[in-house]
Specification:
The complex is a heterodimer of chains A (502) and B (312). With 502 residues, chain A is α/β, with parallel strands linked by helices. Chain A is built from 21 helices and 16 strands. A five-stranded parallel beta sheet of chain A has the order 11-12-15-10-16. A four-stranded mixed beta sheet of chain A has the order 1-2-4-3. Chain B is of the alpha/beta class and 312 residues long. Chain B has two domains: 223 residues, Rossmann fold (3-Layer(aba) Sandwich), CATH 3.40.50.450; 58 residues, Orthogonal Bundle (Arc Repressor Mutant, subunit A). Chain B has twelve helices and twelve strands. In chain B, 51% of the residues are buried.
């Protein structure tokens, strides 16, 4: 007796189709799983067997063999439990399962169906391959619906399936029966809550508008973290394809709250400085796993104390900073993971933190300062268009009522406008922060006075070619924020104030 | 004993040479101190013009480095050879300033000629040796041991008519040089700083003890009647500078730029946010004006903090 059930898993961030075949034959009673399953999968034998018995079904007292096809693909995780149970139960009853139905879910010992990771990616993939009905854990229904127009049936318990098959009771269509918490509100900081700091706030606005990377330099306690946290709130909301991408990534790494649907707020990730390169950009086990860079895709990657990060971790950022994605190669295969984010880096001005502070003398030697600065290598610095000094706030400033501070909503409106202008200019092309030299020559058209100012600045400040490009990219964004087609002198003048210190 | 003991192809000037105490090429003023070095290793050619030393802290402030640079350049233009110790901070600023002027400069090292310390000044040492000289009493291979630096300092003051201290903390190498200069009968000068700056304390003590306060190159040259010609050369330059300086000191012409400039300090940086709050101006406008001021040389900016730019 044989039954088949369609299921799937994720590899990297892509869905993969897996067919679960169950055979029940005469022989010594036993339960075998073949098809390159990992340890979690071998343990499925116990889960599935007990869950079946606890749900009013009878686990067959014969030789049960499960095959996971394609057999050469290494598989991991617990998402095949439901498919195995469905196949086994139906093989025993000799009842045909619909060939175009897909089954996803992990089983608890009592037969409850638990949420799994990567539902969105798997459902989207199976939908493309022609699956027309999806049985998924109730907590993953909202997510699965994003990826398919076909019926998505929430299975809360194996017992529900029994009632469905034997008595025709309809399956739940998504209402959460258990008390799954709704997605918590995003802990974003409104710009109006940040006291003072108009210069840094303006730099944030420019960074958001043109997707420029930003370096905040300032003594400890100046408010760099608060500023960085305010950035997602002034980014434009994600459009549908972007939101699907972000939601799918969150689902694959298990960051999607139970019951959550489409995530529309750009992600914010703040890895600690002890992070390994693999955790930062992806890698890890034998299969490619997305890292923080991918989790920050379409959002903000905040690296506080960037000079304290491991050197190899910092260097591993080069590819995502340059290409917006990265190739991860592991022993079980390779994957290209997306990683287009706005980098907000924060650093002290020098090891002791007091360089440039008028009240305290910096005690670092020039060599120490130079070494400290050199920890952020040239290729990384070249990608950071904006650099601002965030001064320590006097206590009086913090106590003063924030009367005319602009809120995030107003700033976001300008950012959205600037993004629109960039998209009109380059519908497929990069945003200003990623414009290359030749692209700049076309996009960054200067008026005569602006041109003269760029030349004077290059001469007086001894700007390298790359530094000039950085200034032009920023000036282009400032002009976009002010809805100007050409870059005027004022735009260049402001852009020059965000350059790297000499 | 007959000198020279060793010379490479002895073309007078370029290359490395060794000059012993009884060699006629040995600098006369240095010979007169009570413990002159037995021999000098010279890379380049030791100039015969009158010399004045500029010394100061390795952890100099931007103000100190600017001042040392300007004084050295003016001295060099006036025909005076600037002597210093090739260290970081003030020394390097003095050498670089002197290289911009018309006269050569001399660096006195504590290490052997084969080992430039600090290593990042290797190029600077090369540039100095092209027109002037890098000298030392130490054999090749001598390491930069702490004890060697005070000993080296007696050569700096010994070569010079006077020593200008730019920034020196209490108990610093620059103060040792100044004290040796006084013992050797050389003039001691000092550039004052802010009383809040720890690096000014040593120098201010020197002024209290009788050192000459220096604002311009003329204050130095005035002390040496023999340098009247140099002083005359410097005077013309200083006058021209003063004119430019007065113009720069009174700030830019444009009222909108002047309004910002008037709020700035010569020494202490002020932040953009601070200016925007004081002037009740939009931050974009503040940034724009600051760039324009910076491009016409009225201010110096450093990613968010600005000071007035002292011209010279």
């Amino acid at each position: 007796m044989l039954a088949r059930a369609l299921s799937g898993t994720v590899f990297g961030l892509d869905g993969v189709r897996v067919e679960v075949e169950a055979d029940i034959a005469d022989g010594l009673p036993g339960f075998h799983i073949v098809g390159l399953g990992d340890r979690a999968l071998q343990e499925a034998r116990e889960r599935v067997k007990i869950a079946i018995n606890n749900s009013g079904f009878q686990f067959p007292g014969r030789k049960v063999t499960i095959n996971l096809a394609p057999a050469q693909l290494p598989k991991e995780g617990s998402g095949f439990d439901l498919a195995m149970a469905a196949a086994i139960v139906n093989a025993g009853e000799d009842r045909g399962l619909p060939a175009d139905a897909a089954w996803l879910g992990e089983l608890a010992l009592d037969g409850t169906v638990r949420a799994i990771r990567g539902t969105l990616a798997i459902v989207a993939h199976l939908d493309r391959l022609g699956a027309r009905r999806f049985y998924v854990p109730t907590a993953n229904v909202a997510e699965a619906r994003i990826a398919t127009g076909a019926p998505v049936l929430g299975v809360n318990h194996l017992r529900d399936l029994k009632a469905h098959w034997e008595d025709g009771v309809p399956l739940g269509t998504g209402a959460l029966t258990e008390a799954a918490a709704p997605p918590p509100p995003v802990p974003s900081v409104d710009l109006a809550e940040v006291h003072g700091q108009p210069y840094a706030k303006r730099a944030l606005e420019v960074a958001a508008a043109g997707a420029h990377h930003l370096l905040l330099v300032g003594p400890p306690g100046a408010g760099k973290t608060l500023l960085a946290r305010a950035l997602p709130g002034i980014l434009p909301p994600l459009n549908r394809p972007e939101a699907v991408e972000v939601t799918s990534i969150a689902s694959c790494v298990g960051m999607l709250p139970a019951g959550a649907g489409l995530l529309e707020v750009p992600p914010f990730r703040a890895p600690h400085h002890t992070i390994s390169p693999a955790a930062l950009v992806g890698g890890g086990g034998a299969a490619p796993r997305p890292g923080e860079v991918t989790r920050a895709h379409r959002g903000v990657l905040f690296m506080d104390e960037i000079t304290e990060f491991r050197r190899d971790a910092l260097e591993s950022l080069r590819q995502p900073l340059e290409e917006g994605r990265l190739a991860v190669v592991r022993s079980r295969g390779h994957a290209v993971l997306p990683g287009r984010f706005i980098l907000v880096a924060a650093a002290n001005p020098c090891p002791c933190g007091f360089a440039g502070d008028p009240r305290r003398l910096c005690e670092c030697t020039p060599l120490e300062r130079q070494r400290y600065r050199a920890r952020l290598s040239g290729p990384i610095r070249d990608r950071i268009d904006l650099q601002v000094l965030v001064p320590r706030q006097p206590a009086g400033e913090l106590l003063r009522a924030n009367l005319n501070a602009e809120g995030s909503a107003a700033v976001r409106e300008r950012v959205v406008g600037a993004r629109r202008r960039q998209q009109e200019r380059r519908p497929h092309g990069p945003l200003n922060g990623a414009l290359t030299g030749p692209q700049l020559r076309r996009d960054a058209v200067l008026d005569a006075v602006g041109q003269a100012l760029v030349e004077t600045a290059a001469e007086r400040l001894q700007l390298s070619g790359r530094a000039v490009h950085r200034v032009l990219r920023v000036a282009r964004t400032i002009a976009d924020l002010e809805e100007c087609a050409n870059i005027a002198q004022g735009h260049v003048a402001e852009a020059l104030q965000y350059r790297e210190s000499g | 004993m007959k000198a020279p003991t060793l010379t490479l192809p002895r073309q007078r000037g370029r290359g490395i040479s060794v000059v012993a105490l009884d060699n006629p090429d040995y600098p006369e003023r240095l010979r007169q101190i009570h413990d002159p070095p037995a021999r000098l290793y010279i890379n380049g050619r030791l100039p015969s013009e009158p010399m004045i030393a500029i010394v100061g802290s390795r952890h100099a402030t931007p103000y100190g480095r600017r001042t040392a640079h300007r004084l050295a350049r003016d001295l060099s233009d006036a025909g005076v050879v600037v002597v210093s110790g090739l260290a970081r901070g003030i020394d390097a600023a003095a050498h670089r300033g002197a290289l911009e002027g018309k006269s050569p400069t001399v660096a006195v090292m504590a290490t052997g000629l084969d080992r430039v310390y600090p290593p990042e000044h290797a190029e600077l040492a090369q540039a100095i040796a092209v027109s002037g000289a890098v000298i030392t009493e130490a054999e090749n291979g001598t390491l930069p041991l702490p004890a060697r630096f005070p000993v080296r300092n007696r050569i700096i003051s010994g070569l010079s008519l006077g020593v200008v201290v730019v920034e020196a903390a209490q108990r610093s190498g620059a103060l040792i040089t100044a004290r040796m200069a006084a013992e050797q009968g050389r003039e001691v000068f000092c550039v004052p700083g802010s009383i809040e700056n720890p690096l000014a304390i040593g120098g201010h003590q020197l002024i209290k003890d009788g050192a000459t306060l220096v604002q311009t190159v003329e204050d130095v040259l005035d002390e040496f009647p023999d340098l009247a010609r140099a002083r005359a050369r410097a005077q013309a330059r200083v006058r021209a500078h003063t004119r430019a300086r007065t113009r720069a000191d009174s700030g830019p012409q444009e009222p909108e730029l002047l309004a910002v400039w008037e709020l700035l300090d010569w020494v202490e940086p002020r932040h953009h946010d601070d200016l925007a709050a004081t002037m009740n101006l939009d931050i974009k406008e503040v940034s724009r004006r600051l760039t324009l001021l910076e491009m016409s040389g009225y201010i110096i900016g450093d990613c968010g903090a600005v000071t007035r730019c002292p011209r010279a």
